[in-house]
Design goal:
Elements (H helix, E strand, L loop, with lengths): L13 H12 L7 H4 L1 H4 L13 H20 L16 H18 L2 H4 L6 H8 L11 H8 L7 H19 L14 H4 L4
Helix pairs in contact: 1-4, 1-5, 5-9, 7-8, 7-9
């Protein structure tokens, strides 16, 4: 469906879409679909042509977003849409499209990146380490942290780092509320007075 979006529009590819959705979901506040959906079908947010049926595409995108939200909210493992590349591709090359989608969300919705919390530095570095250092020229602290990290040696480790990073970011920007202990009813034996 993304491939059917007509030129000159430039839709996200499937892997970039997944990273983009995670970047939107990890903002410190909710971002309404009407604010981000247009960037799925065009990186510049241009409107789809009148004859293009976007209902099915948007429904599938919203379904994936709901799946990701459930996993992130529950801090459950999920499989990001990262695909093994042919040949001698490195783990970084396989992760890069996903990371590019995440970075796109950060550019469009920068509140996460503006959050001043040192706990964000390492998980963000694990995501941005897949970019060329020249692309991070304005992010000195991020580059310094990346220099301390060991790059993953295989795709499985890279994906594990990716998901772990998202959960660590969520702990800062989307903390889970601590449930109050449920009020337990006392049984008749518990209500008896002690002598």
């Amino acid at each position: 469906m993304l491939d059917s979006v007509p030129a000159p529009l430039e839709p996200l590819d499937v892997s970039s879409l997944d990273g983009f959705l995670c970047g939107v979901l990890l903002q410190p506040h909710d971002v309404a679909p009407q604010q981000w959906l247009r960037y799925v079908s065009d990186i510049e947010g241009r409107a789809l042509p009148g004859g293009f049926d976007s209902v099915s595409l948007q429904a599938m995108v919203l379904r994936r977003q709901a799946e990701l939200k459930r996993a992130i909210d529950a801090r459950d493992w999920f499989d990001p849409w990262v695909f093994e590349l042919d040949g001698a591709a490195t783990p970084a090359q396989a992760i890069l499209p996903w990371a590019a989608g995440f970075a796109t969300a950060m550019e469009l919705f920068p509140d996460l990146m503006r959050t001043e919390d040192s706990a964000l530095l390492e998980p963000l570095a694990l995501l941005y380490m897949h970019f060329d250092a020249a692309d991070l020229e304005d992010a000195d602290a991020l580059r310094t942290m990346i220099d301390t990290l060991e790059p993953p040696t295989n795709l499985a480790d890279a994906v594990q780092d990716l998901v772990r990073s998202l959960m660590l970011i969520a702990d800062v920007t989307r903390p889970r509320s601590v449930a109050k202990p449920a009020h337990r009813r006392r049984t008749p034996a518990q209500t008896r007075r002690r002598r």
